[in-house]
Amino acid sequence: MKPWFAKEAEVIKFPEPEKKVLDMPNVASYPDFITGVTDLKARRHKGEISQDSHDKLYTDLIHRFMRKESFETPWFLREAPEDEIDQIKKLLLTQIQGEQELAILKKMLKVMKTAGIDDKLAKALKTDEDAAPLVQRLVADIMNTEGTPAEKEHFANNYTKGFINLNALLTPNQKMSINQIMQNEMAPDPKNKDQKQTSFVFAVFDFLAKKYTPQGVGPGEVALAVLSPNIRRIGGGTGAIGDIMVSHNQKDYYVEIKGKNYDSETKKSGTAGRLSDAKVHVVDPNGIVAALKSINQTGQRISLAPSARARLAVPLVGSDNSVVAKLSQAGGDINAFASQIAKAIFAKQPGAQAKAEKLIAANDSNLMTFYTRILYDRYYKIKGKEGGNKLSGFGFLNMKNNSYFFSTNFDALTQAKPNLAPVYLTNASGEANMDPREFGTAITL
Asked: 235 in the Ramachandran plot: left (φ > 0), alpha (ψ -120 to 50) or beta?
């Protein structure tokens, strides 16, 4: 029996919605960053969310995972200028222009995590932070490197094979281009908009060598370790043998990398890696100053020998304006001074003092080469224990001229005519130089 209101009135049906009401995505429900990226793009493509909603949710997604993975604290954010931090956070997102790029990004993240790059990066960059953000940053930078999808796909597919030719890397005393130590490269894609002549692999190496160099890490060390499964960066202070360990033909090679960086934007080169180590240094800074003051040489910076980069310093030997030349002109006791300062310069290498004394007394600029040889040889003697691992050689990497030289012999190194940067025996005021790095020769090939 119908109620009275059904009898006396026409019942109007409540209008049904034209479209099914959809719940907005919950950013907190996504298990990881990539899953969130994929879902948001799919919803936008289907028209389930607007572009504005998509962009806002993307921002929320970034903020969520940046906090979860401590993305605020790694070195690359601490050292970045404040106005670049937002740009760094969005690196991953800007590379996703379509399904192909998204697939490559997912593959690259998976490949690098499987290859243990998170652990390699954490050790290489000397950080105790969670390594996951380092991998995301690395992959974002690789995706941001100029290259076509085909080149990036090739990079991901061949990553575990390694891009460093270990035979070339360990070829002794032969100067070669960086291209010669590369392998498994894809020729530049003709579809590349700028028609670049270098491979995508080389472009990634170049970027890593120049940009992944926090304090204490030389140019090229991270690049070599990241691009080869058989190379590991050692680090770890003065007790370490070399900077990297190369595992090749069932043998481990310990290599000290001495790199020189180059900024293509400012056209400025960094100082080459120095032969500098607490256990390798031979000088007595206070003894040097005492010897100089004994002949009334004060108030000026003193370099070991003349150098174009040390124009404001007075050289100890090697020119008509040197300390020794002036002492000779003044009728001073050259031999007594040469003996005193040779003992101070080679305080921890007594066997070198007699020859050094002769070079100093003769005002001979070959003192610089002799000093460098002593440091070079001490690396081999001290960097390694009796019956244990030994230093295999030095890898001189020059990012300005893209060259590489694996040095195992000082005489062969001198035949390559290296450029030796100045060694400063005193500070700018002529007092004891307490910066130990300035006592290490910087070698450029």
From this structure: left
d(CA 407, CA 256): 10
The pLDDT tens digits for 368-401 are 999 999 999 999 988 766 556 889 999 999 999 9
40: in domain: no
Residue 369 lies in a domain: yes
Q: What is the CA radius of gyration of the chain?
A: 31
Beta 231-233 vs 391-398: how paired, if at all? unpaired
**Is the separation of the CB atoms in 131 and 122 below 8 Å?**
yes
Give 192-243 pLDDT, tens digit per residue: 766 667 898 999 899 888 887 776 778 888 889 889 989 988 865 555 788 8
Q: How many independent structural domains does the chain possess?
A: 1
Distance in angstroms (rounded) separating the CA atoms of residues 401 and 421 = 17
Is residue 48, in this structure, part of any structural domain at all? no
In sequence order, the 6+-apart residues with CB closer than 8 A to the CB of 120 are 225, 226, 232, 233
Contact 248, 183 (CB under 8 A): no
The residue type of 444 is T
* Res 383: pLDDT: 76
What pLDDT, in 10s, does the model give residues 171-186?
999 999 999 999 999 9
Is residue 343 situated within a structural domain?
yes
Q: What percent of the chain has pLDDT over 90?
A: 41
